[in-house]
Amino acid sequence: MVMPSPTPVRTRKTKAVGIPAVDLSLNRSLVIELIVKACEDYGFFKVTNHGINKEVAARLEGEAAEFFAKPANEKQRAGPANPFGYDCKNIGPNGDTGELEYLLLQANPLHISERSETISSDPIEFSRAANDYVKWVRELTCEILDLMAEGLWVQDKHVFSQLIRDVHSDSLLRINHYPAVKEIREWDSSPKAIGFGEHSDPQILTILRSNDVAGLQIRLQDALWVPVPPDPTGFYVIVGDALQVLTNGRFTSVRHKVLASSHKARMSMMYFGAPKLNTWITPLPELVTPQNPSLYKAFTWSEFKKAAYSLRLGDTRLDLFGN
Ligand code: GA4
């Protein structure tokens, strides 16, 4: 049997554990096998040889760095993020906080170009960089979703990707900036050390890219936390709650968090691939059998989002929709 090629990680708190990595230039059936295994075991993997030019991410990262370097009062003009725009430390509407500031935008050209007016003194350049990034990363998301559908032997190979491709898809773009927190030491457990608290992503699939600063950790099924070594040349794929439901629990949405760094600022950019609001989220018929009955009640993406926003960041919102 072929195993995902692991990047060994050794820390004081965990044993050496491999983060699955999938080279997308390998032969298709091997890639599919590696992706399915990684989604079942981790709900997380890294992709390399993804075909996205490094300039695409560098341009948006540069624009974002320029924004985050502005004085606080200028950045506030792009906020607050209720739910979209700029915010500092506040996460969501229910009192969650973290040691970060961020931009949260809807991943569509109109919204991005409107929002760019308050983000950049050159809004055309900012929206070009953001829209270009979204276009490439959406393609990568859809390619990966098609490989997953093929690996699950579902009839319609575009069953997942068509949800994201819809012009009214509720996909998001988030850029997080975690300033270095000088006072913390490694493995500090004080709230100052938490960049973004433990949670799963509600959407179908998240594509994350970061600079070379560590901080991201994923939780394995045995509750062990594993640090993810940063790699600005790769993209990290995160299975979201909606994909867990669509696959009737075969793929698991991975819980993850970000710890603050004491020496250098971390910057990450996430594309959250989501369906349109009135889409029904329910296990695919091929994955429901008498031996594997449906684990979830049917719900719309809008109902699920409403539930997510009514709960705290770390709550396991899927519990509300179990059969
Ligand atoms: C987690 C994943 C995405 O970053 C996000 C987050 C959203 C927010 O920051 O506004 C949420 C969080 C995320 C899940 C529960 C709710 C909503 C904050 C929060 C407490 C943009 C998303 O879609 O869900």
Helix content: 25-40%
Order of strands across the main sheet: 1-2-3-11-8-13-6-5-4
Q: Averaging pLDDT over every residue, what do you get?
A: 93
Question: Gyration radius, to the nearest Å?
Answer: 19 Å
Order of helices and strands: EEHEHHEEHHHEEEEEEHEEEEH
Pfam families: 2OG-FeII_Oxy, DIOX_N
Domain Fe2OG dioxygenase: 168-283
Catalytic activity: gibberellin A1 + 2-oxoglutarate + O2 = gibberellin A8 + succinate + CO2
Family: Belongs to the iron/ascorbate-dependent oxidoreductase family. GA2OX subfamily.
Q: Would you give an account of this structure?
A:
- This protein is globular.
- The strands form three sheets. It has a nine-stranded mixed sheet.
- Residues 7-12 have low confidence and may be disordered.
- The chain starts with a strand and ends in a 13-residue tail after the last helix.
- By secondary structure, the protein is an alpha+beta fold.
- The relative contact order is 0.16.
- Helices cover 29% and strands 24% of the residues.
- The longest helix has 29 residues, at 123-151.
- The chain has eight helices and 15 strands.
- It catalyses: gibberellin A1 + 2-oxoglutarate + O2 = gibberellin A8 + succinate + CO2.
Which descriptors would you attach to this protein?
323 residues, alpha+beta, 8 helices, binds gibberellin A4, Oxoglu/Fe-dep_dioxygenase_dom, gibberellin 2-beta-dioxygenase activity, EC 1.14.11.13, metal ion binding
